[in-house]
Write a structure and sequence with these properties.
With 279 residues, the chain is α/β, with parallel strands linked by helices. Helices cover 49% and strands 10% of the residues. It contains 13 helices and five strands. Helix 6 packs across helix 10.
């Protein structure tokens, strides 16, 4: 699919403005990384680069492209930009700062499902149960669980699971070679996230609710369905085991948090539906 040159040019216009260390906001989607990028822009970081996929193997494995329509021009431009960042910064052996946000995998996947599938396919006649079945069977639930192993590690050469994470504080700094990395929980308050970013970047950063949040990005009718879905949906314990017994959840989340989330979402009598764990 042809990518409009103007889209790539607009996204790459900052590539010539790297004066200090570049800052990569490098995360899977739907973890409030857009809000973080806006906060850094307002704090004066022109040399920030918001990227999701710099490893083409992960792009193919993660099922980003629709099997029917392939990738949209916007997706193509997004991946072209990410590849350019990898070439000009990572492969060029530049030192850089990396901010990577981590979110509860279940709510992250719900957000991605409604944004990437429900909002685009239309939602007439959908019920909470039909949406639950579609969410389980169609959404690739492995994406957040495997992102650090299959995307982050191959690109930066750093396995975050080899480094301790302060689960109570909700953020951790890793220094490895030419990279200094801030791992940051999405669930922290905006004030807590701003303080962690300020400590990491040595410059005041103010996080705030932005129009990049789920509430504002979804169509109005989809947003209403999303609210009802979160209010009513429940899942069988086996599905929650898959998410919350994962290395990802156990590394970044406290046992108390996981216990509370299981209590919130579990129903032993929910109708069984096979969930998607492969491309």
């Amino acid at each position: 699919m042809v990518v409009p040159d103007r889209i790539i040019e607009r996204k790459q216009k900052h590539m010539s403005k790297i004066e200090d260390l570049p800052v990569l906001i490098y995360t899977p989607g739907r973890v409030s990384s857009g809000s973080c990028s806006i906060a850094l822009m307002k704090a004066g970081f022109e040399n920030r680069f918001h990227v999701h996929v710099m490893n083409e193997d992960w792009r193919d494995y993660s099922g980003a492209a629709s099997p029917k329509t392939g990738m949209s021009p916007q997706q193509e431009a997004r991946y072209e930009f990410d590849r350019k960042v990898r070439t000009d910064i990572i492969d060029a052996k530049q030192e850089c700062l990396v901010v990577s946000l981590v979110r509860d995998p279940l709510t992250r996947n719900m957000s991605a499902y409604f944004m990437n599938q429900v909002d685009k396919m239309g939602n007439g006649g959908k019920t909470a149960e039909s949406l639950r079945k579609g969410f389980l069977s169609r959404y690739p639930h492995y994406v957040p669980l495997e992102w650090y192993h299959r995307e982050f590690n191959p690109v930066l050469g750093i396995n975050v699971y080899d480094h301790p994470f302060d689960r109570e504080r909700g953020y951790q700094v890793i220094e490895s070679g030419r990279f200094k990395i801030l791992l940051l929980r999405t669930e922290l308050t905006n004030e807590e996230k701003g303080n962690a970013l300020q400590e990491f970047l040595n410059r005041p950063v103010e996080m705030e609710v932005s129009r990049k949040s789920d509430k504002y990005e979804l169509k109005e009718e989809t947003n209403e369905l999303y609210r009802e879905f979160k209010k009513e949906v429940k899942f069988r314990p086996e599905f929650l085991d898959y998410l919350y017994n994962s290395e990802y959840a156990r590394h970044f989340m406290t046992p108390k948090e996981i216990k509370a989330l299981r209590k919130r979402w579990q129903d032993d009598n929910a109708a069984p539906v096979a969930w998607r764990t492969t491309p």
